Amino acid sequence: MSSSPHLTPTGTIAGTHDRRRVAFATVAGTTIEWYDYFIYAMAAGLVFGELFFQPAGAGVATILSFATVGISFLFRPLGAFLAGHFGDKIGRKPVLVMTLILMGCATALVGVLPTYASAGVIAPILLIFLRVIQGISAGGEWGGAVLMAVEHAPAKRRGIFGAMPQIGVPIGLLLASGMMQIMNVLFPGDAFLEWGWRIPFLFSIVLIAIGYWIRRGVEESPVFAEIAERKERTKAPVVKLFARFTPLVVLAAFVFAGNNAIGYMTTGGYIQNYGTVELGLERGPVLAAVTWSAVSWLVFTALGGWISDIIGRRTTYIVGYVLLGAAAISAFPLVNVGTVASLTTALLLLTVGLGLTYGPQSAWYAELFPSSVRFSGVSISYALGSIIGGAFSPTIAAWIFESTGDAVNIGYYLLGMAILGLVATILLRSRNGINLRPGAEKEQRSGIYVWEKPAA
Predict the structure, then answer these.
(1) 417 within 8 A of 261, measured Cβ to Cβ
(2) 452: which DSSP letter?
(3) What is the Cα–Cα distance from 115 to 133, expressed in whole angstroms?
(4) 160 Cβ partners below 8 Å, 6+ apart?
């Protein structure tokens, strides 16, 4: 295969085989990356409070455990800045390989950490350090994966191709919750606390090897290949991004924040903790409910990407946020019924809006930012949105419940985040099919906001 792929007029690879290979690689890579990320969040909800923060007392230990989930989000922008800088200078592919290895190594090392009982305060310090490494990796992963998918895709199918790395996230959740369920069966009771929780982390070593092999065989993004060929690589892409597109970065971050805040009720471990600790449900059925929600999230994420190619990214988001707000306000009244069935129903309702506001994100982000700063723009917007949204949403939820004694109040916070995402969505234009190639920067820089007219 040629190292310089043939470009179509929209800057995509012409061969269907190549596009399918890229789609498969982005799904596989993001699945592995987010399996690592979610397995930590699940362990935070189930065991880390007891194993690493027990001296603080049960309630505070839970808050501290969830805080370590959120701390990693603070370092996502660092990963996004680094990945954006190098992704716009040396290419998408090498950055993706580096982030995969970094994430996998950090995850595997969590599996061999000593607990507070055996090592004292050094144990939570090491845990936080490895979570920071995960945050840096996650900050750089997403932008590269989505651009590889979208920049290879046909213009009229960017939504469904861009949904490929997106569905890797619920598949990663599915894999993580499935592994935790298996460990819960194989290591019941105290055995799960002693060794069962560690095995899913150590399993990451196998996944790193698989992901590395897959990603090494994928061609570089054709848009970046053309940028390099034209010798138009930006010397300081992050500086250029904020000098010209700061309002866009902020709005794009808000678009994601609403989705991420609500999504992390599950992926951040709060629902698992609330169901088992506060409602007294068995760990296994709660993990099974999360597994079913991951399947539903996957389906609606793919559906959201596909629909956005037909009705537009913006319209898909608006519908998704309306549904997500309604589900958010009704989630905890349903959960408080206290049965596994009601918990599962609440999670499934959330996944409809979550999918519709996640599936189109790759394509919309790629179409919003000009080619010269695209990696930096999508990565940094995503990282900032994750801080505003999901970083501390489980911690905030735990604090709201601790302060008020009523989990229903958490729903008002989640509704507010959905409204924030909806308002930001309304202020941006849908740009389906816009030319992504470097030679079309003038078109890419205009008509971004609803108060602007697109270039003639």
Answers:
(1) yes
(2) S
(3) 19
(4) 153, 302, 305, 306, 309
Q: Are 13 and 143 in contact (CB under 8 A)?
A: no
Burial class of residue 16 (count of CB atoms within 10 Å of its CB; 0-12, 13-18, 19+): exposed
Give the pair of three-digit tokens for residue 358: 């996640």
Task: Count Cβ atoms below 10 Å from residue 6 Cβ, excluding itself.
Answer: 11
Measured at the CA of 153, the angle between CA 150 and CA 157, to 5 degrees, comes to 100
Tens-of-pLDDT digits for all 456 residues of the chain? 333 444 444 444 445 656 777 877 788 878 887 788 788 888 887 888 889 988 887 778 888 887 887 788 788 888 888 887 777 677 767 887 888 888 889 989 999 999 999 999 999 999 999 989 988 888 777 777 888 888 888 889 999 999 998 998 888 888 888 898 899 889 888 888 888 999 999 998 888 888 788 777 666 666 666 665 655 555 677 888 999 999 999 999 999 999 999 988 776 678 888 888 889 998 888 888 888 998 999 999 999 999 999 999 999 999 999 999 999 999 999 999 999 999 999 999 999 999 999 999 999 999 999 988 888 899 889 889 988 997 788 888 989 998 999 999 999 999 999 999 999 999 999 999 899 888 888 889 989 999 888 765
CB 48 within 8 Å of CB 127? yes
Tell me whether residue 91 is exposed, middle or buried, using C-beta atoms within 10 angstroms of its C-beta: 0 to 12, 13 to 18, 19 or more. buried
Q: Residue type for 404, please?
A: T
